[in-house]
Write a structure and sequence with these properties.
Elements: H1 3-10, H2 17-20, H3 24-41, H4 45-58, E1 62-63, E2 75-80, E3 84-89, E4 99-105, E5 110-121, E6 124-132, E7 145-152, E8 158-163, E9 173-174, H5 183-186, E10 201-204, H6 219-232, E11 242-248, E12 253-255, E13 261-264, H7 267-281, E14 289-295, H8 312-324, H9 328-333, E15 336-339, E16 343-344, E17 366-369, E18 373-374, H10 385-397, E19 402-404, E20 414-415, H11 419-423, E21 428-433, E22 435-437, E23 444-447, H12 448-462
Helix pairs in contact: 3-12, 7-12
Length: 463
């Protein structure tokens, strides 16, 4: 065997999909049209759950009913407080042979309004936010913003807020200094280019006025609140009962002359949520019962009742076990899970942050991340060789393009996913997702070929 033959036999490198399988370009482009629509419809976790319920019910899923014996092929879902959702297709094998779990998250970095957000300064009305998740604050200034969420009223009604997405809607904005006056600001570290308390969102500049009326202390604030009241019937006190998120006010678009990338807000991690949901819906008669988890709060540690660092998924599995008269511990120990989250794609412009040979690259497929964490794998579940072998076998046997990748160079940073919380349930788990450029920015990029192969991976995993 000569050197070239030996190289082909012994060495491996993930190929560029457009070279290896050029026919996939058209299929990937078509698949991503639905994905872009999903991103536009679901810019918050609540909106994602609402959209997911519509998709699931249209496909024949029904909410789980206790004390019901489900048969193979039945499709059910659990809606957790309208902010997280789990869907399942009952398999032909006994539940004790294990579940094929797939967990993505539907929350993304954003700006949340504070409980007392509205104020006026020098004839401008602002809303004061508290940023959510890991953002680079300077990226959120001087871009159009929209407002989404719910407000509770004193009589217990929940009113949906959505301003800035429809044609003709007003938008909102955070200001930044012009270069001519930014000499002092330019001396700040990049992380403090815009400080947290400088993320003030402009909502108005016209004062409330009535001829011969009594002087108003904060007339611009009053006008802004009057407009909120006219639109939604709310008062300033109602903000204390609200959950309002401010996000970028633009839709998903194609990027590049070749339209090879999707550019949008919130692809971390709605790209895995959509691909998992589509694979779940299209699964008809799986061997193992499937469990597709779209969770909340991952960006702040998976805390709270809708995050994976709670027992809500464990309770879902308990529901299934009770319906099938199966032992919970046996089911969990026999199960396999994909923690479906994105990874940082290698960026040649910022190559210093990566170790090239152990990074994921765009257009080379979904990325298997054996471990996440920081520096010495802190906060990682670190998938076993056996788990990696099982998952890679599924990918290879089903023609899925995949690669491996770490989250940056060893001492540069790191991150975590829901994998550690799944592992806590005694379930084997590994991360699998899409490489992302500009992750956590208000506008992220993902390859259509990678998105499509992530969908193919989930289909194969469920099959």
């Amino acid at each position: 065997m000569n050197g070239k033959e030996l190289e082909k036999e012994l060495l491996w490198e993930a190929p560029h999909i457009a070279k290896e399988a050029p026919a996939e370009r058209e299929a990937a482009a078509e698949f991503c049209e639905g994905y872009k629509a999903f991103l536009d419809a679901g810019k918050t976790e609540r909106e994602c759950v609402k959209t997911a319920v519509e998709m699931l019910e249209a496909a024949g899923y029904r909410e789980f009913a206790p004390n019901t014996a489900y048969k193979a092929g039945d499709k059910i879902y659990w809606n957790n407080r309208k902010k997280a959702i789990v869907a399942a297709t009952v398999g032909t094998a006994a539940l004790t042979e294990g579940i094929r779990m797939n967990g993505a998250h539907i929350d993304s970095p954003r700006l949340d309004l504070k409980p007392n957000p509205l104020f006026e300064k020098q004839d401008i009305a602002y809303l004061k936010p508290h940023y959510y998740g890991g953002i680079r604050k300077y990226q959120w200034a001087a871009i159009p913003l929209s407002m989404h969420g719910v407000v509770g009223t004193k009589d217990g009604k929940m009113i949906e807020i959505n301003i800035g997405e429809k044609e003709g809607d007003p938008r909102f904005c955070i200001t930044d200094l012009l270069p001519h006056l930014a000499a002092e600001q330019n001396q700040r570290k990049l992380a403090e280019g815009i400080k947290g308390e400088e993320l003030n969102i402009i909502v108005g500049s016209i004062p409330f006025y009535e001829e011969d009326g009594e002087a108003i202390k904060t007339p611009v604030k009053l006008m802004a609140m009057k407009l909120f009241n006219e639109m939604y019937g709310i008062t300033e006190k109602d903000f204390t009962r609200a959950e309002i998120e401010v996000v970028p006010a633009y839709n998903a678009v194609d990027i590049g002359l070749d339209r090879s990338l999707v550019g949008a807000y919130g692809q971390d991690d709605r790209v895995c949520a959509y691909t998992a949901l589509k694979a779940e819906i299209e699964t008809a008669a799986p061997t193992h019962t499937t469990l597709t988890i779209l969770a909340d709060k991952e960006e702040i540690g998976s805390v709270g009742t809708t995050g994976l660092n709670s027992d809500f998924v464990l309770h879902v599995v308990e529901d299934l076990c009770q319906s099938a008269d199966a032992d919970l511990k046996t089911v969990l120990r026999s199960s396999l899970c994909l923690s479906s989250d994105v990874n940082a794609a290698y960026d040649p412009t910022f190559s210093f942050a990566f170790e090239e040979h152990n990074s994921s690259h765009i257009n080379k497929g979904c990325v298997l991340t054996k471990y996440t964490g920081a520096r010495g794998k802190s906060g990682s579940s670190d998938a076993s060789a056996e788990t990696m072998t099982k998952v890679i076998k599924i990918m290879d046997e089903n023609g899925v393009h995949w690669q491996t990748g770490e989250l940056g160079a060893v001492d540069v940073g790191g991150g975590g996913t829901i994998a550690q919380f799944v592992a806590r349930m005694d379930v084997d788990v590994v991360d699998l997702g899409v490489p992302i450029l500009s992750m956590h920015a208000p506008f992220e990029l993902a390859s259509k070929l990678d998105i499509y192969n992530t969908y193919k991976a989930f289909k194969a995993f469920y099959k």
